[in-house]
């Protein structure tokens, strides 16, 4: 809202002066200040279009889904995450008074008022209500409220709401996420195509997406999704996920959909009405006062199963008429749910042998009711009558006679414990208080303490066999967590990675969820210029979770940083012209820098942080790292498999001595493997190749060309970082200062721009230039010592600055880093081991970046690349041994002996 709209809204709400001041404070507080002190709890960032800023959330389901809902609710005018905290007081379950500061999840301005909102799951609220009954309470109508939160809100004349996940429909939220590209961005679908689709749907209300695509040549699913988002077609977003084309039914408008739903009739084009929510498989129906089980509700026929006898099939239209007239009724749903749970429990407890016996008995009971005496002639009459009685009793009680035929062998005998209660309870106490503790006491020691305690109490101790049996019966995950901690117990934690049962954990289409991470490859590399061993490179991968396709990769010697993330995203846009809808990252600091967050927000990408110390949530990319090593890296000379057993390494197998690959050559072949070999090989989890799954999914989920991002100078500028403040001051005669260096452009001579602050960006791979935003355009600025810093990376300059600080600290002088000191220091890099090594690594990485930034060029083929350098100097035993091609004699150039000249001015 602008200031006029806000003033108009305030006048309509008739708020108090204190409430107006509070709302004005919240609206004026920057997001970075609102979440100060709580950033460690943030697990994701959502770039809100409605708010024009990023919204941080802690829960990937409840809070993120609430954000999606508020983004698309017309009555929500504004919402703010993590508003300023306020103090609340309440009593816990022991009656103790507690007081602390509380930060709600959101502060929401709606058309009917303003309120604080706290979102939690029903399960979590039940647990908190037992622990803090004075803070969380459930009313008679089933709604949750917080008395201390409500009291604080009422002091301002506002409201405080406790919201739960039961208010968030999973299918509706999933469809909103699916349609987000169409809801927030304009699509240009030709008018002729929309007319054809609308005409077909008007002629066949309730037709499916599959039928529409088949009936109109040249129509794509992408066109239908665009029409749904722009409300040219109506779909019940609560009913079915949009990717399931065969189930999604299209209507011209909402009124037509409601008419077909409420009237429950079949249209003249034989399109049946939508399935009522109560008519699910296994639903028990009452027809002529007898129970029937619904087996299948089909498009043309419906199958019903009677109590006794064979199933029958009715035309769906006739079945619906019987249902509408009341001849067929649905049995009470609550009663049916409890009966189904009881039947399911009996079936779950049955062993395979129990089921085999029940099947045999059912066959005989059916023969008895149908008077086939030859089948049961060898069975005693009393036994057969007993089975028939059990079948009918179970039929009356559960509506399923089959469970009455299950044998109850496990219930025979005396199942009650024979151990003294006092001894048994004391044993459980010692296991809980002495064994399951961080002290990790041995089981034998705990049992000896237990026996000693029993002797002191003059009671009979249980045997050691019983003690160890009890230990094995304890939940292994909880036991390991109490003794060794959460990380040690992680392998035994239940593998529940889905957000909910109805939400696909890997998304429902390509680019919906993308994982990005780094790993250090198990291979030693050399410098192409000097032959010096430069160590192991770092690989950054960007992988699509749905298709398992490698979208981008980046190879560098530098440890993980925002630069690696930026280059991987650049490569993704260059190859596909797309940005992911959500990117999953770990807790690495490179994923939580201001540059990375700004880039994601710029292209409306959600950042989700996976839980720390739980690699299963990143299993998609973690497994790919292992595949990269086993299928590619381990087949190359210089791989570090031998280093895993350092005591067995000899000179002949030492990876540092075997290394022959350079960074550029490794990158060329690695991209060939990732983008060609891996992409077209069948994936075990998919049953198809990643490329095939990706291509087929685009046809179903929509190509979404309107979200295309051009790989041009505007995009490259958006990926370039800025300073911490984002702006710099133009100093007369000197220009702008970025990272200790002054940069100049003749546009700075204009008196109108002198001493003004302008946005600034720089290239982290070329510190010789920077960019300032002047008069509506970006201008290129040249460094004060351009000849020294051109081609130098940000990493090298920062490393030089750190070396200067260390030198000044050792000499006990004040550190004053200037551009001249940096230039002089870098000029002597050949004499400095650390800077020389970094320079060599940067030179190796330059060819990789040139390959990435070459516009309009694909990945070079293996046949176009020379893999092994024709001349490599390899230091062995402190001697340089040149490895040359047999047919050529190439002399090496020793760059360390080149003369250094003064800068020409």
TrEMBL record:
Swiss-Prot/TrEMBL GO biological process terms: DNA integration
PROSITE patterns: INTEGRASE
TM region positions: none
UniProt xrefs under SUPFAM superfamilies: Ribonuclease H-like
Molecular function as annotated in GO: nucleic acid binding
InterPro entries named in the record: Integrase_cat-core (IPR001584), RNaseH-like_sf (IPR012337), RNaseH_sf (IPR036397), TnsA_N (IPR014833), Transposase-like_Mu_C (IPR015378)
Ranges for domain Integrase catalytic: 506-698
Pfam families in UniProt: Mu-transpos_C (PF09299), Tn7_TnsA-like_N (PF08722)
Domain of life per record: Bacteria
This protein's name: DDE-type integrase/transposase/recombinase
Species per Swiss-Prot/TrEMBL record: Dendronalium phyllosphericum CENA369
């Amino acid at each position: 809202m602008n200031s006029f709209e806000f003033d108009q809204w305030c006048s309509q709400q008739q708020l108090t002066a204190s409430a107006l001041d509070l709302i004005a404070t919240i609206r004026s507080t920057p997001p970075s200040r609102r979440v100060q002190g709580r950033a460690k709890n943030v697990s994701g960032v959502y770039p809100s279009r409605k708010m024009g800023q990023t919204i941080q959330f802690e829960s990937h389901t409840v809070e993120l889904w609430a954000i999606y809902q508020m983004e698309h609710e017309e009555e929500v005018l504004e919402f703010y995450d993590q508003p300023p905290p306020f103090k609340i007081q309440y009593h816990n379950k022991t009656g103790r008074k507690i007081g602390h500061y509380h930060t709600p999840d959101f502060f929401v301005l709606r058309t009917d008022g303003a309120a604080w909102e706290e979102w939690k799951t029903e399960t979590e609220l039940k647990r908190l209500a037992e622990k803090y009954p004075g803070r969380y309470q459930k009313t008679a109508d089933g709604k949750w409220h917080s008395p201390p939160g409500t009291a604080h809100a009422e002091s301002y004349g506002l409201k405080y709401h406790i919201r739960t996940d039961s208010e968030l429909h999973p299918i509706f939220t999933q469809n909103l996420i699916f349609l987000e590209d169409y809801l927030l961005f304009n699509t240009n679908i030709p008018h002729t195509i929309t007319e054809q689709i609308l005409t077909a749907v008007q002629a066949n209300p309730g037709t499916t997406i599959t039928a529409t695509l088949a009936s109109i040549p040249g129509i794509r699913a992408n066109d239908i999704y665009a029409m749904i988002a722009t409300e040219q077609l109506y779909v019940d977003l609560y009913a079915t996920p949009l990717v399931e084309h065969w189930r999604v039914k299209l209507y011209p408008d909402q009124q037509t959909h409601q008419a077909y739903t409420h009237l429950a009739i079949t249209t003249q084009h034989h399109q049946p009405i939508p399935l009522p929510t109560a008519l699910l498989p296994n639903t028990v129906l009452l027809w002529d006062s007898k129970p029937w089980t619904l087996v299948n509700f089909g498009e043309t026929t419906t199958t019903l199963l009677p109590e006794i006898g064979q199933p029958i099939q009715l035309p769906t239209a006739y079945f619906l008429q019987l249902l509408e007239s009341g001849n067929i009724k649905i049995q009470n749903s609550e009663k049916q749910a409890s009966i189904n749970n009881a039947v399911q429990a009996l079936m779950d407890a049955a062993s395979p042998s129990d089921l085999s016996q029940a099947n045999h008995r059912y066959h005989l009971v059916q023969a008895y009711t149908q008077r086939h005496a030859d089948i049961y002639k060898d069975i005693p009459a009393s036994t057969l009558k007993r089975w028939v009685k059990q079948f009918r009793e179970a039929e009356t009680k559960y509506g399923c006679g089959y469970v009455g035929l299950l044998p109850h062998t496990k219930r025979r005998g005396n199942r009650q414990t024979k151990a003294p209660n006092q001894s048994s309870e004391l044993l459980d106490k010692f296991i809980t208080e002495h064994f399951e503790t961080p002290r990790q006491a041995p089981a034998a020691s705990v049992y000896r303490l237990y026996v000693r305690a029993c002797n002191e109490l003059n009671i009979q101790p249980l045997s050691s066999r019983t003690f160890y049996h009890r230990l094995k019966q304890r939940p292994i995950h909880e036991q390991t967590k109490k003794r060794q901690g959460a990380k040690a117990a992680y392998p035994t934690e239940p593998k529940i990675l889905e957000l909910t049962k109805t939400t696909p954990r890997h998304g429902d289409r390509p680019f919906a969820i993308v994982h990005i991470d780094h790993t250090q490859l198990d291979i030693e590399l050399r410098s192409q210029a000097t032959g010096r061993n430069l160590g192991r490179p770092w690989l950054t991968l960007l992988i699509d979770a749905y298709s398992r396709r490698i979208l981008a990769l980046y190879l560098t010697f530098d440890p993980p940083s925002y630069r690696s993330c930026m280059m991987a995203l650049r490569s993704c846009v260059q190859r596909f012209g797309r940005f992911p809808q959500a990117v999953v990252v770990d807790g690495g600091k490179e994923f939580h820098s201001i540059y990375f967050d700004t880039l994601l927000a710029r292209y409306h990408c959600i950042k989700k942080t996976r839980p720390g110390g739980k690699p299963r949530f990143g299993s998609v990319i973690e497994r790919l790292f292992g595949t990269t090593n086993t299928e590619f890296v381990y087949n190359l000379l210089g791989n570090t498999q031998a280093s895993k057993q350092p005591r067995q390494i000899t000179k002949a197998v030492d990876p540092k001595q075997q290394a022959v690959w350079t960074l550029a050559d490794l990158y060329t072949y690695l991209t060939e493997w990732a983008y060609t070999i891996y992409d077209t090989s069948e994936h075990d989890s998919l049953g198809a190749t990643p490329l095939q799954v990706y291509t087929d999914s685009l046809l179903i989920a929509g190509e979404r060309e309107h979200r295309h991002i051009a790989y041009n100078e505007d995009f490259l500028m958006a990926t370039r970082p800025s300073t911490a403040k984002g702006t710099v001051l133009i100093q007369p005669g000197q220009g702008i200062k970025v990272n200790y260096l002054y940069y100049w452009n003749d546009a700075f001579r204009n008196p109108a721009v002198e001493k003004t602050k302008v946005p600034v960006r720089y290239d982290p791979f070329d510190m010789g230039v920077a960019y300032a935003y002047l008069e509506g355009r970006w201008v290129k600025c040249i460094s004060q010592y351009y000849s020294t810093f051109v081609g130098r990376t940000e990493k090298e300059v920062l490393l030089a600055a750190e070396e200067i600080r260390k030198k000044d600290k050792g000499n006990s002088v004040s550190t004053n880093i200037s551009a001249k000191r940096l230039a002089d220091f870098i000029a002597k890099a050949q004499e400095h081991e650390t800077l020389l090594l970094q320079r060599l690594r940067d030179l190796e990485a330059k060819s990789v970046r040139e390959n990435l930034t070459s516009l309009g060029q694909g990945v070079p083929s293996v046949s176009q690349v020379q893999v092994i350098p024709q001349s490599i100097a390899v230091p062995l035993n402190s001697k340089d041994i040149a490895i040359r091609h047999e047919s050529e004699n190439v002399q090496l150039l020793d760059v360390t002996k080149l003369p250094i000249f003064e800068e020409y001015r």
